[in-house]
Design goal:
Elements (H helix, E strand, L loop, with lengths): L1 H14 L4 E2 L5 E2 L2 H15 L7 H8 L8 H8 L4 H10 L13 H6 L1 H18 L8 E8 L10 E6 L2 H14 L3 H4 L13 H17 L7 E7 L9 H11 L3 H12 L2 E6 L2 E6 L12 H22 L16 E4 L2 E7 L2 H18 L9 E4 L5 H11 L2 E2 L5 E2 L2 E2 L6 H4 L1 H12 L8 H15 L1 H4 L6 H16 L12 H4 L13 H18 L4 H10 L16 H7 L2
Parallel strand pairs: 3-6, 10-11
Antiparallel strand pairs: 1-2, 3-4, 5-9, 5-10, 6-7, 8-9, 12-13
Helix pairs in contact: 3-14, 5-8, 7-8, 10-23, 11-12, 11-13, 13-14, 14-15, 17-20, 18-20
Length: 564
């Protein structure tokens, strides 16, 4: 208990906002002045740019209708009490409470007492489109995104909603989720059942490996990495509504979704104290179960703009080999990677697409987090000209996409040392004296062994690095502030199952192999995936995956998967 109390106190201290810089770069340290800076910043974010019909149509006209009459009939059916109950069960029990002060566990635990009133209120909103406006009142909490957080832009906005309204949003989201695979283009991998973030990572790695090694040919290729600033908070409501209508959703479905979006009101929480009131004109909430699915439907407008230019031949995608499918862009929510020919005309085309999408959707490119990478045969003068045209920096290796490296050189231990650093930082921040060995076991299994899982899904990490991570874990397990670190049992024996006398810790090398084997099985089971098609064309064009060879100049991801 002392450990978790200390962690909570430390976290509260980190999240406490003592002072902040205002628009003129002056420090504000009085609560009233800090509140004023925050309110002015978000007033700008939440104020609509008043779109014209022409600006909207520049994007909307490129979007095809994808929602069928059968899908609409399903969406128009009355919601049932069972659907509301299922949504309640799916909610995380101990999420931070909103203005109602109640986490979902209260509604789950006392469901037999309050089920009738809760279900009636939710169904009244979903079926009759009527509800008490106070249900959609939301607290905004600011969480630091980086160590140095001295301006409002350095904070992540989290919306804390009332559970009743969150339950209604979750029920709508459950209806939409099964349809998204038929509505959203294959280039988008976020929030859609059956699509994984690692698919994008593997495709990006193969294509960037191709760019890195392309040293011949007159025409070069380019990868442009884009990041949107406050992506959810800038979505224009008119754009969202027009996108839903153009995709083919019935007017009643669109009306319900827009009711949930437009009835929103905000108040801010600063160091535990509530202040201010905002009636936004645009934006969707981070923390609302429905928001991710609405965002990727808005992002479909950007995809359609790119596809239209690709169809006209203005931009051409990149293929890892001649037989492989061409890829012009990859999306994971607001993280975008564009591949095309390295010409001034192509960059001007991309710049035009970004301007159209920005005007229609309200999105703003975060130039500090955006970058560009060129194939090796692109002249230095051309690189500088194109980077200047897009106002982004030229990527230097090692670079990251979706949190993972997409270039790996010879010194893999050094490149992946950030994994070891993250593990060490976590362990060194824990107070050993406050933890029993049972507590340490739980923390090692839930945190230390999960940190590298994502990286292990795509890369075979060096054995020496994995042994070092195991060493950090075992030192932490046996350490005590009052005595020397004596390891009573070897790590290998601690990895044995509890039935056989061990502690069920993961053997890192074996776990790495298992995670990569899952990628191999996914490629075998889903031959129509983009990554499956690229790998087949590149490494086993006339054979199947199980008979694939390492090939000439293979990527590190292919080497890793093949090693299993």
């Amino acid at each position: 208990m002392a450990f978790f109390h200390a962690k909570a106190s430390h976290r509260r201290k980190i999240n406490h906002i003592d002072r902040i810089r205002d628009e003129t770069d002056c420090w504000c340290d009085e609560p009233a002045s800090i509140q004023g800076v925050i309110q002015r910043y978000f007033h700008t974010i939440f104020t609509s740019t008043r779109l014209t019909r022409e600006e909207l149509n520049e994007v909307i006209d490129t979007v095809p209708t994808r929602v069928t009459s059968k899908m609409n009939r399903k969406l128009l059916e009355d919601y049932s009490a069972e659907e509301v109950k299922a949504a309640l069960i799916q909610m995380f029990s101990f999420k931070s409470p909103g203005p109602d002060g109640m986490p979902p566990v209260f509604f789950q635990r006392f469901c037999n007492i309050i089920r009738s009133a809760t279900t009636t209120t939710v169904l009244q909103l979903l079926d009759d489109h009527t509800f008490n406006p106070s249900l959609n009142f939301t607290h905004i909490v600011l969480i630091p995104k980086c160590q140095k957080h001295d301006i409002v832009a350095h904070f992540r906005l989290i919306s804390l909603c009332n559970v009743i309204f969150k339950l209604a949003s979750k029920t709508i989201a459950n209806q939409l989720k099964p349809l998204l695979d038929h509505i959203i283009s294959l280039s988008q991998s976020a929030f859609i059942p059956g699509r994984l973030i690692t698919d994008n990572v593997l495709v990006a790695f193969e294509l960037n490996h191709f760019l890195k090694n392309k040293k011949r040919g007159k025409e070069g290729h380019v990868a442009v990495k884009l990041d949107m600033s406050k992506a959810y908070d800038r979505i224009e409501w008119n754009f969202l509504e027009d996108m839903l209508c153009k995709l083919g959703f019935n007017n009643r479905v669109v009306s319900l979704i827009m009711l949930c979006v437009r009835s929103l009101t905000y108040s801010f929480m600063l160091n535990g104290m509530q202040f201010g009131f905002v009636k936004p004109e645009r934006g969707i909430r981070q923390g609302d179960p429905l928001s991710p699915y609405l965002f990727i439907q808005c992002a479909e407008g950007f995809t359609c703009l790119l596809q239209a230019k690709e169809h006209n031949g203005d931009i051409r995608g990149v293929a890892a080999v001649r037989r492989a499918p061409k890829v012009s862009h990859l999306l994971f929510a607001d993280d975008t990677l564009i591949f095309c020919q390295a010409t001034k005309e192509a960059m001007e085309c991309i710049q035009g697409i970004l301007e159209k999408y920005k005007r229609a959707s309200g999105q703003l490119i975060n130039l500090d987090e955006s970058s560009i990478f060129f194939s090796s045969n692109t002249a230095h003068e051309d690189r500088m000209e194109m980077a200047t045209l897009l106002s982004v920096s030229i990527d230097s290796m090692p670079a990251k996409y979706l949190g993972l490296l997409y270039f790996v050189g010879r010194n893999k231990r050094e490149l992946f040392s950030y994994v070891r650093t993250r593990v060490w930082q976590q362990v060194s921040g824990w107070k050993e004296k406050m933890l029993s060995q049972a507590g340490k076991e739980i923390l090692i299994k839930s945190i230390v062994q999960s940190i590298q899982s994502y990286c292990m899904s795509c890369f075979e990490l060096p054995d020496s690095l994995l042994r070092e991570i195991e060493s950090i874990a075992t030192n932490f397990f046996w350490s005590n502030m009052e005595r020397n670190k004596i390891h009573s049992v070897a790590w290998d024996k601690m990895c044995i199952s509890k039935k056989e006398g061990g502690l069920d810790f993961r053997k890192m090398e074996m776990f790495n192999v298992a995670m990569l084997a899952k990628q191999g099985w996914r490629i075998i089971s889903n031959p129509n995936l983009l990554i499956s098609c690229i790998l087949k064309a590149r490494y086993y064009p006339d054979n199947d995956f199980l008979h694939g060879k390492i090939g000439y100049n293979p990527s590190f991801t292919w080497r890793s998967i093949l090693a299993t």
